[in-house]
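User: I'm putting together a teaching handout on how multi-component assemblies are represented. Below are the sequence lines for each component of a complex, exactly as they appear in our records. Could you produce the 3D structure of the whole assembly as C-alpha cells, so the students can see both representations side by side? Please keep the chain order the same as the input.
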Amino acid sequence: MDPQVLEAKEEVLKTAQEMVRRGLVAGTSGNCSVRVPGTDLVVITPTSIEYERLLAEDMCVIDIKSAQAEGRYKPSIEINMHLTVYEARPEVGGIVHTHQTMGTAVAVAGKRIPPILEEQVFALYGAVELAEYAAPGTTDLAGNAVAALGHRNACLLAHHGVLAVGQKIRDALLHAEIVERAASIYIMSNIIGGPRIVPFMADQEPPPE
Ligand SMILES: [Zn+2]
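Assistant: Of course. Below is the structure of the complete assembly, with chains in the same order as your input.
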C-alpha cells in the first residue's frame, strides 16, 4: 500500500480514538478524515464500529472525484460532508466531526458562538457559526456546513454537533477542543451578565438581537 495512504489511515484511527478518550464523542458517533497529500484520496472512519476495536487497515479510502470507496467497511454516513468541505477548501487536510457536549448545547439552542476569546479568533478565524439543520448524511447538511464554515476552521451543526477543520487532522482536533472551551465559556458568561466581543472583532459583528 502507498505509504502515504497507510500513514493517513494511522492518523485517522489515532484521532478517532483520541476523540473518544477526550469525551468529544461517545460510542460510534462522530467521524474524522484526512486528505492524502497530493492526491484526490480521502481516508475516513468507517460507520457504526467502535473505534477501539478498529485497526488502521479498517479505515475507508474514497476518491474525491468519483466518490468510489474502497475497504472492507462502509464509510461514515457523513462522507458527503467531508468531501464537500475538501472540495470547497483546498488547504484543508483534516476534518473532525464530533458530538461534543458544550458545542452541541449552543447548537441545540439555535445559537452561534460570537468571537469572545482571543484563542478562538486566532485559531478558528472568528465566530463559530451555526449551520442550518438538515438530516445526517444528506447533501443538504454538507451544503449547510460548508456555508457556515466559510473561510473559518469550525462551525456548529444545528441539533447535532460540531465540525472542525485544519491543515492537518491534529489541527482539526485542536480546533474542536477550542470550540468546546469557547462554548463552555460562552454559556457560563451568560450567567454573569453575558459575554463581550473581543474588541478587535467588534466591528465585524452583527448587532445584538
Ligand atoms: Zn454526527
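A couple of points students might notice: Residues 29-30, 97, 99, 136, 160-161 surround zinc ion (CB under 6 Å). The chain has one domain: 3-201.
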